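Q: How would the C-alpha cells look for this protein?
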Amino acid sequence: MVVLLVDDEPLAQTALAKALSARSDVEHFDVANDAMEALEKLATNSYDVLLLDINVLDLPGTELVNRVRERSLPLPSIVFVTAHVEQAVAAFERHTVDYVLKPFSNESIHEALDRASRRAKGERAAKLIEALPQLQRLSRPEHPMIAIKAKGRILFIDPDDVVAVQAEGNYVSLQRESDSYLLRESISIVAEKLKPYGFIRIHRSALVNTSFVVEIKPYSTGKCGLRVKGGKEYAVTSGYKKNLKPLTEFRIGSGAFLAE
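A: Here is the predicted structure in C-alpha cell form.
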C-alpha cells in the first residue's frame, strides 16, 4: 500500500515514519508537514492510506478531509492520530475512519494500519469489479468487423454474430445463426484474430464462439461435443479439450470428463 503521512510534530512524524518503514506491505510513503502540502500531494498522487494528525496547525485534519471531498479527489482510508480521545471518537463517527491515540505504541499503529490496509484492498477490489465490463470492452480491438468479399460486394460481419468457424479447403466458413459466408483465410490465422472475442478452437478445423454454447456433452468414447443455440453440435477432439477449461470455469456443471 502507498501511504501519505501528515504530521507537524517532528517526534511523532519520525516515530510514524519508522513504523511505516518497518512494514513489508508499505510500498512507498510520502510525508507532508501541513495540511496544504497534503492537499497538493493528494491532488497529484494516489494513496491507499492517509495517516493524519487531527491537529495539524494550518488546518484541522477533519477540515482537510472535507476539502478533499469538496474537490472530488480520491479519498484514501484514513487513520487519525490525536492526543484527545473525544476528537478521535468524533472523527471516527463522522468520517468512518480509524484512529490512534498519542502517545501511541508501535502495536497500536500497526493494528490501525492493518485495518486500513484491509479496507483499502476491499475498496480496490470493489472498484475493479465495477470497472471490469469497461476493461473488457477496452481489451477488444477497436474495429471488430470482419470484411467479407461476396458477389462483388464487401460485407462487414460482427464476430459476436458468428456461432462457429469451420475450415473448407483454402477458405473458412463463418457460420451465423441464419447464414454463412466464406472467407479466403487459414483457420489458424482466423483463430488468432477471433481469440479476443471468446472463440476457442475445438478441432484443427473448427472454432466455436463460447457465448453460443449451451451444453457440453460427454460421449461414451471419452470425447465430448458442444451444443450451441439452435441445437447444432460440434465435436471436440482430444487434443483441444484443454481449451474448454476457461468455458467450464464460468458455467454451472462438472468438467470432470475434460481430464485426459
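DSSP finds seven helices and 15 strands in the chain.

The radius of gyration is 29 Å.

Upvote if useful.
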